[in-house]
Amino acid sequence: MPARLAHVSPAPSPRAPAEVDFTSLRRRVDAALEEFLEAQARHPVDACLPPLVDVVREFVEGGKRLRPLFCYCGWLAGGGEPGGGPVAKVGAALELFHTFALIHDDVMDRSATRRGRPTVHRVLADRYHGKDREAAARFGVNAAILLGDLCQAWSDELLCAAGERWRRRAEPVLHAMRTQVMVGQYLDLAGEWTEDALDRSWRALRHKTAGYTVERPLQVGAMLADAGPEVLRLCTAYGRPLGEAFQLRDDLLGVFGSPEVTGKPALDDLREGKPTVLMNLAWRRAGSRQRALIRELHGDPALDEAGAERLRDVIRRTGADTAVAELIELKAGQALAALDDVTVPAPARTACADLARAATRRTR
Amino acid sequence: MPARLAHVSPAPSPRAPAEVDFTSLRRRVDAALEEFLEAQARHPVDACLPPLVDVVREFVEGGKRLRPLFCYCGWLAGGGEPGGGPVAKVGAALELFHTFALIHDDVMDRSATRRGRPTVHRVLADRYHGKDREAAARFGVNAAILLGDLCQAWSDELLCAAGERWRRRAEPVLHAMRTQVMVGQYLDLAGEWTEDALDRSWRALRHKTAGYTVERPLQVGAMLADAGPEVLRLCTAYGRPLGEAFQLRDDLLGVFGSPEVTGKPALDDLREGKPTVLMNLAWRRAGSRQRALIRELHGDPALDEAGAERLRDVIRRTGADTAVAELIELKAGQALAALDDVTVPAPARTACADLARAATRRTR
């Protein structure tokens, strides 16, 4: 799950001032989320619920609302009015769905921090009544599985709150999106260095980032605006390569990025043995001694900074990092080029171009 | 999660032949499930999906369709036609939601078997490519979390397939139901013997069984039939005590039942340290030496049959088992009495009465 995507700044670059008001959209998404969560806490089915709502609320706060933002771009591209209409509530539903996905992602990766703060299963472990630390950790994980489940259920409830008309337009894309993210996450589970591992890593990236994070949210926005086939084709032609560039950049940051920028400990991806495209490219190109080193260190939960530096050295020597950086340029270029092929309203074009450029920045 | 509820026979008792055709409803629910899953496997977003659909398909096969059945009772009580109309598809959606809940329940409990077969995380662990057994187990758990997530998403998709009109009628109840089962499961997570443990165990039972398994499915059926307030009141007056009786019986079977009847290893509940009403009553009544024994053995993952027998002996000596058996009689009686207070169509009454009687049978 692309944690570091959350740190792409949605603000326009200084030289191309966007005409799109992301700040106000973000504010409306946050208000819709808060309104929904507040209602859940105000009339709880059980007294245990309000403190759990607070955990969700605090976790949700750190997000940059990337999916609502792409949803808004799709809406504008489809001719929707600049105010955003239903995008705030539907975007809030996307965000709550993403909350579910991140909570479970952190459980699966056993991550300790996210967005610079303790992950949900860690927060919940601290609420265990009792001294047995192992029991507390297990309680935290199980409670986080349930709270994630609840967020998935609630994202659907929030979608209903947006109104029948909007829900019906968005739903077919949302169904595809939900299946796609689970499939992407499944392909992303650590495995062995089998023959098809590189292919699997590409498919994972396409489903969970190109599809789930960019193309589908764009399509949701376009569908809400009742867009024609040309705009829907743009969502794919622009969204897929951009999503790929985003994830490839995320893979690079996971190995070479600094924790202050990413909000995640620097060694998490390497310790978890994430089967990224970057690592698979390195493996493909590695000699037998380099492979032995990857086998030994990649996925070692006790990996230290010295070991990580040895892994980084192998990656650099294979040239996999350069290859990935080139791919990012290429994909971002494809995304930008797609924007020239169709006529879309100016604010949508500016917003999409800014986002494509943001994907190529800060690759270290 | 009440595993053993699945083993309540929905067949009518010999002396009161029901006029309700459960077998044919069950067949239609199964057909709707199969049709949906087949469609997911036929046009997969990725090649990894069809084998995962097969895992769901095999897991789903063993269920007794208790929630669709209650949904059907609610439909009949509300004046729905005996064919069942939308109940087959909506019931299939309930069943797929339950599949999600059970997959995650088994992950949380680390259960090895369900319905006499390996649990989903065990099945998936066997598909791991590699020799590291610990990595395989972790892969199985993570893949099962994702497959459960997918089943929740798909249950909503199946509900849409039932049609706008029916979906809109069922949805408010479904929203409440989803929150309630997560809350019930949360309260059911093993904790310490704190002052409020008995209260928590009652609340868990009320949400996850009385609400999720009986009252809500009844209400869904009643809403589908556009029932009036009197029938909706019946869903609560009959459904809640019946659900409580079901779960209390389940608790007894979890300690005293034979694995051939329950489909679960006899010691699972005790090894997991399930904070049931039964165990909490025993704890309340136990002396200090009995409490020490409960503390030592309840929740011990390595508990053997001799240890289990010592726990059973404590429960018997405190009289907690007798108290629970009496409660079951009382609650089932309340459910039956509620049926006399309103006028509902004869087939619905017969079906409901049969189910209430089934709850009191086979308490050992």
UniProtKB/TrEMBL annotation, chains A, B:
GO terms for molecular function: metal ion binding; prenyltransferase activity. It comes from the Bacteria. SUPFAM superfamilies: Terpenoid synthases. Coiled coil: none annotated. InterPro entries: Isoprenoid_synthase_dom_sf, Polyprenyl_synt, Polyprenyl_synt_CS. Its cofactor is Mg(2+). One of its GO terms (biological process) is isoprenoid biosynthetic process. It holds the Pfam family polyprenyl_synt. The keyword Metal-binding applies. CDD domains: Trans_IPPS_HT (cd00685). Keywords: Magnesium, Metal-binding, Transferase. Belongs to the FPP/GGPP synthase family. This is Polyprenyl synthetase.
